[in-house]
Specification:
Distance between the termini of chain A: 15 Å
Number of helices of chain B: 9
Helix content of chain B: 40-55%
Radius of gyration of chain A: 23 Å
Structural class of chain A: mainly alpha
Number of strands of chain B: 10
Strand content of chain B: 15-25%
Radius of gyration of chain B: 28 Å
Helix content of chain A: 55-70%
Distance between the termini of chain B: 59 Å
Largest sheet of chain A: none
Strand order of the largest sheet of chain B: 3-2-1-5-8
Order of helices and strands of chain B: HHHEEEHEEEEEEEHHHHH
Oligomer: heterodimer
Largest interface: A-B, 100 and 101 residues
Shape of chain B: elongated
Strand content of chain A: under 5%
Order of helices and strands of chain A: HHHHHHHHHHHHHHH
Largest sheet of chain B: 5 strands, mixed
Chain lengths: ~525, ~375
């Protein structure tokens, strides 16, 4: 408290007003807010596309869109949710929280921070503009396998490639900033092993980003030259190999899924101890488990490719390596369980989302284990079973963690407590509908429905209809969330400094709302 | 025997578990809830492995959830719980790292044996080459000199909702791939354009069809029957509309089918020499157009701007006849336009080219005969 600098003491450093405040800002809190709003808008856009998908799949037959546009929707939905909603959402949390949690006045590289955000709206706009181009937007799935995405793709694909490059720049700069901040800006006394779990998970995630975003840039550049400059990286007719695309893509793509989930682990590891009023169980094993998961993510990627005709030795290796990820992941779940065990729990809205995360992420983890086993994956691969799996880890995992983080930290950001009644309505509405939406997809996937099809045979009709109904309800629940967010920003019960009774950490020592500049004098951590 | 009984029991247990959850409204739907057991040794092995891992997951999941739920119910502040202060225990952390590891090692054993059996394509009795096309399959019987395409037969009216959907909606084709039982059949799987994936769930595997490369897989069926599957890898616009139908026949029935196919090939060669009237060409051409061309160039010949060129008023359909024949027969490299010379007979090619030159307001009056096409082939 004494270390926090309040607004009143530094009039000249207050928030400027007007639009240019947001364009020119180098303040980590402003940039965090921009990231979070961008992610929220993209969540709505990607969600609207999901509604189109679920509406078309509501019953057999082609009713609403044509097959090509359906493919465009599944592609854009995936790209926007991954690169537009989840990743920027997590970066927004990092921007707001990391300086406040390590006692730093701002991010280490504030101008680059501004740039890495402001690339995003342009990249997003360029990506979405492809929908209006002749030939339509990208329609080859978010994994954009060659040669469907090279020789056989619409002209707009080059815009998609450029948008991916820009998103990559943004992510790499964001990651450099986080690493520089964590390594250089920690308050005196805050050793690495005293850092909050959220900071640790983001620190590790940033290394993943720096390692794999250039790989993504490489693979889209190879696409670009295949499409326009006569190379044949992925064209067998010219001596290339379409499967090479998948090797390079998944070398990025597998760490990418951990980029989306590791910060979520961090959020949950902050929330559960607060509401259990008990220290996080096994802090150091959490750190090691996170690092192990990050390391393993580089050497298991080809489990996405069991059906491509890999040699059997490769299949065995990737199967063994993949199932090993279950060990550190299990350690995490056990640690959260042990943290709750013999605590004194209360169930405010953030805790409800965190608990739902633990339950539902565990289900997604188990289906992941099932798919890591190569011979059974021969059946599961490219069906709705995997659609169910990755939505359990990405929606009830990563997205639930971002929502939990909003309910947890919003009082610090806005100075207003979130209306508990509305938060709980949002929670129960979402958690029930999301299971109606995704749980039946396990059934239709096992029964044999491939993913990415606009129309299906009649045995899948009932579960698809139920899934669609769940989807519409879940979509509406997130529209309701907009209302909750705006209401919280505009008013509500004043939040105290500590906000939550069991909260510990530097961010809970500064006033709520957090002043525009915090920790200009570094706090002492004992 | 015991394993089989156990499997059945566990499966029905899983079924009833799900039904309990879903309520009586869905009784009778249990065959749409779980993986298909399939009809081959391999598919049974894969299914057993699936159920084994599934039950391991269920047991662990129930254990963890039980602890969580107990804790949530009991260790509440509102019940006067006082937080404990423990936050680490090396012993317990070593235990709960080791146990999952051992469970995984135990699981890896049956997984490895199943995978090795699944991938062992040696000593096959016959080979069938499967080639994926946008959006159909081609089957070449390498030992029999039989070759044909297999295309979806579900009428467009059913897809668009103008007619009631049949029982095998989107799961029916004109020419199923026919195989004999009790033979180890090796499938050589490749593609002509983009990546497809050949998947009949009852066989227990899927295998990607990669252009320029040949993957192999095998099966051995024990009972005659009809098995349905689908393309499993996104391959463009009509990915959802290229099913697979596999028919297994007894050895005698299979031999009869082979003889029939060879007779049909000879008849088609004879037909290539005949001369057709305009009406015949137009009628035949329209039906060929709708099954073969309309997926891209659209039923009204307008194409999709920027992706698939229009036939109506199109430069090729209104230009030189020879150029038109050339592009239909030989395709256009680097685009989705395939070489239809290998897919369609001379009669169908002549008819469809005639149709394209005279329908959609093109009205050129040109007639193309099978002999013209045969000359260009």
């Amino acid at each position: 408290m004494s270390t926090a600098t309040t607004h009143d003491e530094h009039h000249d450093h207050g928030a400027p007003s007007g639009l240019m405040r947001w364009v020119k800002t180098t303040n980590h809190k402003d940039i965090g807010t921009l990231y979070l709003w961008f992610a929220f808008i993209m969540l709505m856009v990607g969600g609207a596309m999901a509604m189109v998908i679920r509406a078309e799949l509501f019953q057999p037959g082609m009713q609403i869109v044509d097959p090509n546009f359906f493919n465009t929707m599944t592609t854009m939905h995936g790209l926007i949710m991954v690169f537009g909603a989840i990743m920027p959402g997590m970066v927004g949390l990092a921007n707001w929280q990391i300086p406040m949690m390590i006692g730093a006045p701002d991010m280490a590289l504030p101008r680059m921070n501004n740039w890495s955000f402001w690339i995003l709206p342009f990249a997003g706009t360029m990506l979405m503009s492809t929908l209006l181009m002749e030939g339509g937007g990208p329609a080859f799935g978010w994994t954009f396998y060659a040669p469907l995405s090279t020789t056989f793709a619409p002209a707009s694909t080059d815009f998609f490639i450029f948008a991916v490059h820009m998103l990559g720049f943004s992510s790499i700069m964001g990651a450099i900033n986080i690493i520089a901040t964590v390594l250089n800006m920690r308050a005196p006394g805050m050793t690495l092993m005293k850092m909050p779990m959220f900071v640790w998970t983001w620190f590790i995630t940033a290394f993943l980003l720096i390692a794999v975003m250039p790989v993504l840039a490489g693979v889209v550049t190879m696409m670009l030259t295949d499409r326009n400059f006569g190379t044949s990286f992925f064209d067998a007719a010219g001596g290339g190999d379409p499967v090479l695309f998948q090797h390079v893509f998944w070398f990025f793509g597998h760490p990418e899924v951990y980029i989306m989930i590791l910060p979520a682990f961090g959020v949950i590891s902050e929330i559960i101890p607060t509401f259990a009023r008990k220290k996080l169980f096994g802090y150091s094993s959490m750190v090691y488990a996170t690092a192990s998961i990050a390391f393993l993510s580089f050497i298991v990627y080809a489990h996405h490719m069991f059906t491509t005709g890999m040699p059997v030795a490769g299949e065995l290796y990737f199967m063994y390596a993949t199932v090993m990820i279950a060990v550190p992941t299990a350690v995490k779940v056990f640690n959260w369980t042990a943290t709750m065990w013999r605590g004194a729990m209360t169930f405010e809205t953030p805790m409800l989302w965190a608990i739902a995360f633990v339950f539902l992420f565990t289900i997604g983890g188990f289906t992941g284990l099932m798919m890591g086993v190569a011979p059974t994956d021969m059946q599961y691969h490219d069906t709705y079973f995997i659609v169910a799996h990755f939505h359990y880890v990405l929606v009830t995992g990563a997205l639930f963690a971002i929502i939990a983080a909003f309910y947890y930290w919003a009082p610090k950001w806005t100075g207003h407590m979130v209306d508990e009644r509305l938060g709980k309505i949002h929670f129960w509405w979402s958690v029930i509908s999301v299971n109606v939406l995704f749980f039946p997809q396990h059934f239709i996937g096992l029964a044999g429905m491939p993913r990415r099809i606009p129309d299906y045979s009649l045995q899948f009709a009932d579960w698809n209809m139920i899934s669609s109904l769940g989807g519409f309800a879940f979509g509406l629940a997130q529209v309701f969330f907009i209302f909750v967010v705006i209401k919280t920003i505009r008013g509500g019960k004043a939040a105290t400094e500590q906000v939550w009774e069991g909260a510990h950490g530097l961010e809970w020592t500064i006033p709520s709302p957090a002043p525009y500049h915090t920790f200009e004098t570094a706090p002492e951590v004992k | 025997m015991f394993a089989k009984t156990l499997r059945r029991t566990l499966c029905s247990l899983w079924g009833s578990l799900v039904l309990l959850g879903a309520g009586p409204a869905f009784a009778g739907y249990s065959d749409t809830l779980n993986l298909r057991e399939g009809v081959t040794d391999i598919s049974h092995k894969v299914f057993d492995l699936h159920m084994l891992i599934f039950w391991i997951c269920v047991v662990v999941c129930v254990g963890v959830f039980a602890v969580l739920i107990y804790s949530i119910m009991t260790h509440r502040k509102s019940k006067g719980a006082v937080p404990a202060t423990f936050h680490e225990s090396t012993t317990i952390e070593i235990i709960w790292t080791t146990i999952p590891f051992l469970v995984l090692v135990a699981m890896a054993v049956p997984a490895t044996t199943t995978l090795l059996a699944l991938e062992d394509t040696r000593d096959s009795d016959m080979s069938i080459q499967v080639t994926g096309y946008q959006w159909k399959w081609k089957y070449d019987y390498l030992d029999e000199d039989i070759s044909f395409f297999s295309v979806l037969t579900t009428p467009r009216e059913q897809i668009e909702g103008a007619a009631e959907k049949g029982e095998n909606y989107l799961q029916e084709v004109d020419n199923p791939v026919v195989v004999p039982i009790n033979k180890k059949i090796r499938f050589l799987i490749t593609s002509n354009d983009v990546i497809h994936s050949w998947w009949v769930p009852d066989l227990g595997w899927k295998q990607d069809a990669v252009p320029g490369f040949i993957n192999d897989a095998w099966t051995e069926l024990k009972e005659p029957g009809l098995y349905r599957g689908k393309c499993a890898e996104l391959c463009g616009k009509d990915h959802g509309f290229m099913p697979i139908v596999l028919v297994a026949k007894t050895e005698e029935d299979y031999a009869a089918w082979v003889a029939e196919q060879k007779g049909a090939a000879a008849a088609a060669a004879d037909a290539a020499t005949q001369t057709l009237t305009m009406d015949e060409l137009m009628t035949k051409g329209e039906s060929t157009y709708n099954t073969t061309c309309a997926a891209c160039h659209q039923a009204n010949g307008q194409g999709i701007p920027g992706v698939f060129p229009a036939i109506a008023g199109g430069a090729i359909a209104t230009g030189e006849v020879a150029g038109h024949i050339d592009i239909v027969v030989n395709g256009k490299a680097g685009t989705a336009m395939q070489a239809f010379g290998e897919q369609l007979g001379a009669v169908d090619l002549a008819a469809v080219i005639t149709y394209q030159r005279n329908a959609f307001g093109n009205d050129s009056g040109d007639m193309v005969q099978p002999a013209d096409v045969a000359a260009a082939k």
